[in-house]
Design a protein that fits this description.
By secondary structure, the protein is α/β, with parallel strands linked by helices. It folds into two domains: about 260 residues, Alpha-Beta Barrel (TIM Barrel); about 100 residues, no CATH class. The radius of gyration is 26 Å and the shape is elongated.
């Protein structure tokens, strides 16, 4: 089975989400949980931010994690200086490679980019760091120039090239074509860094893996700049179920990690979020509930047990008689067909008005109203 290394950047790019800031204790706890789940690489910070950030990186290192630790910096001498003495394994030296950013952000030309790669990569190696050259805005760059950057990086001694879809404009067919060409052209490790501005970060990450990427950047819950990054849970499960590609993760730990990051970031997981959202395995529609009762595979694309979860049936406007009957039976209430039908009618009015399922007390009330009405009609 092919394997892909997940390099989770929740503690770096995830924390770059507007308004998100992890405490030292939160960073260490998140790193420990990711490590326990088998995430093999963690990008843990930006040393050039200063002493407090450097201290948090040292604290993560001091926990004795099995994961390899990566830090991020711009490709210039001052940032690289800040990476020294932190005990990490690799540095991502990031530099723009699109003409847009090379000219209008750096004020350079392409030759300047190539010179900087040739100069800074050996310096990082001299500091005892393995090097990933990060191609910022690579998705908007001329692919021929990207290949020249790869060549320069490999010649300088880099181990990996990160292809960054910095503004999230790729789609999976183009992603696959690009990585197929990169894979054919270089022996470097290739890493995909996807942003979700068009909702395609997971798709682009999977396409890159199929085409030859060895590493994928992820964040828990898809946290990250603007619309976020490729979600760890989606990429890991998607690789396994759709492509038979192993990431080595313990999927049953993912819901707990999701909850921890949601609390620490102050960014609640959407109810309908795939795999880890509350509603991911929740069913209401009568036709679905009936199908699940007969055979789970009728309406099960992902087995919730894979993530240590289970199907949940909720009552709502689209519920059928079976679901109402089961709910009443669990409460020890009458389930005569006439009662079930009457409760279902009242249930639909209730959820339309309250925009939620009834509590047990409220369901008892709906049933009592039905029984009481019947008793009033009888002589």
């Amino acid at each position: 089975m092919k394997t892909v290394v997940l390099d989770d950047t929740t503690l770096r790019d995830g924390e770059q989400s507007a308004g998100v800031a992890f405490t030292l204790a939160e960073k260490v706890a998140i790193a420990r949980e990711l490590d326990a789940a088998g995430v093999p690489e963690l990008e843990v910070g930006i040393p050039a931010m200063g002493a407090e950030e450097q201290e948090s990186i040292r604290a993560v290192r001091a926990t004795g994690l099995l994961a390899r630790l990566v830090v991020w910096c711009r490709m210039h001498a001052g940032d690289l200086q800040a990476c020294r003495g932190l005990g990490v394994d690799m540095v991502d030296l990031s530099i723009p490679v699109s003409d847009q950013q090379v000219r209008h952000k750096l004020g350079w030309d392409r030759a300047g980019v190539l010179r900087q790669v040739a100069t800074l990569v050996p310096r990082a190696l001299d500091d005892g760091l393995q090097v990933c050259v990060g191609g910022e805005d690579a998705s908007r760059a001329d692919l021929d120039f990207v290949l020249r950057v790869l060549e320069a990086a490999e010649r300088a001694g880099a181990r990996r090239f990160r292809f960054a879809d910095t503004v999230g404009v790729l789609e999976p067919f183009r992603t696959h074509a690009i990585f197929a060409k990169l894979r054919q052209a270089t022996g470097l490790e290739l890493e995909m860094h996807a942003h979700d501005d068009l909702g395609l970060a997971t798709s682009n990450s999977l396409a890159a893996a199929v085409a030859g990427a060895t590493h994928i950047n992820t964040t828990v819950n898809g946290l990250g700049e603007r619309a976020g990054n490729a979600p760890l849970e989606e990429v890991a499960v998607g690789l396994k179920l759709l492509h038979g590609i192993d990431s080595g993760l313990d999927f049953q730990r993912l819901p707990a990690i999701s909850e921890r990051v949601a609390r620490a970031s102050g960014r609640q997981v959407a109810w309908h979020k795939s795999l880890v959202g509350e509603g991911a395995f929740t069913h209401e529609a009568g036709i679905h509930v009936d199908g699940l009762r007969k055979d789970r595979l009728n309406y099960q694309g992902v087995d919730p047990a894979l993530l240590g979860r289970e199907h949940r049936i909720t009552l709502g406007k689209h519920s059928g008689g079976h679901a109402v009957c089961d709910a009443l039976d669990r409460l020890g209430l009458g389930t005569h067909p006439e009662q079930v039908a009457a409760v279902l009618t009242r249930l639909r009015s209730f959820v339309t008005c309250h925009k939620r399922a009834p509590s047990e007390v409220e369901l008892r009330g709906l049933h009592a109203a039905v029984v009481g009405r019947k008793e009033r009609r009888e002589p």
